[in-house]
Design a protein that fits this description.
- The chain has 4 helices and no strands.
- Helix 1 packs antiparallel against helix 2, helix 1 packs antiparallel against helix 4 and helix 3 runs antiparallel to helix 4.
- It holds the Pfam family DUF4345.
- This is DUF4345 domain-containing protein.
- InterPro entries: DUF4345 (IPR025597).
Length: 135
């Protein structure tokens, strides 16, 4: 068995999904509870902005729970892994658009942008190896 088909590939895919899931649930729950005060560099926002921020945060918690479930058997959830990767990448692109329009955010969000643009292609490549091994 070559290295790309080892159980390590499965563990890395699971680790990426579970790590993302934990971040999503923790940050989402924090924003649901605290609103913009949970956002580094955040401050007072308009009531409509607070409302939409907390709504999206609740969806982020649900996305995290879904990622955790998918991580249990990523080889059987190939389309879900692809969706997670595509959505994460799209989020990184959206952050780039925000930076262009509004300026540079807190350094944490600049770092997350890099992670969101780099991690999805890695996850997809590993998922492809995992699917080849399983199929």
């Amino acid at each position: 068995m070559d290295a790309s088909r080892s159980p390590a590939t499965r563990r890395v895919v699971q680790g990426l999904l579970r790590g993302s899931a934990l971040v999503a649930v923790a940050t989402g729950a924090g924003v649901v509870a605290r609103g913009s005060a949970a956002v580094p560099g955040g401050g007072e926002v308009a009531p409509s902005t607070d409302s939409v921020l907390r709504f999206y945060a609740a969806w982020w918690v649900a996305a995290g729970a879904t990622m955790w479930r998918v991580a249990a058997a990523p080889e059987r959830n190939e389309s879900a892994v692809r969706a997670v990767a595509a959505t994460t990448f799209a989020g990184g692109v959206a952050r780039l658009l925000a930076m262009r329009r509004s300026g540079l955010p807190h350094p944490l969000f600049r770092a997350l942008t890099v992670v969101e643009l780099v991690t999805p292609p890695v996850l997809l490549a590993l998922q492809r190896r995992l699917a080849d091994r399983s199929g």
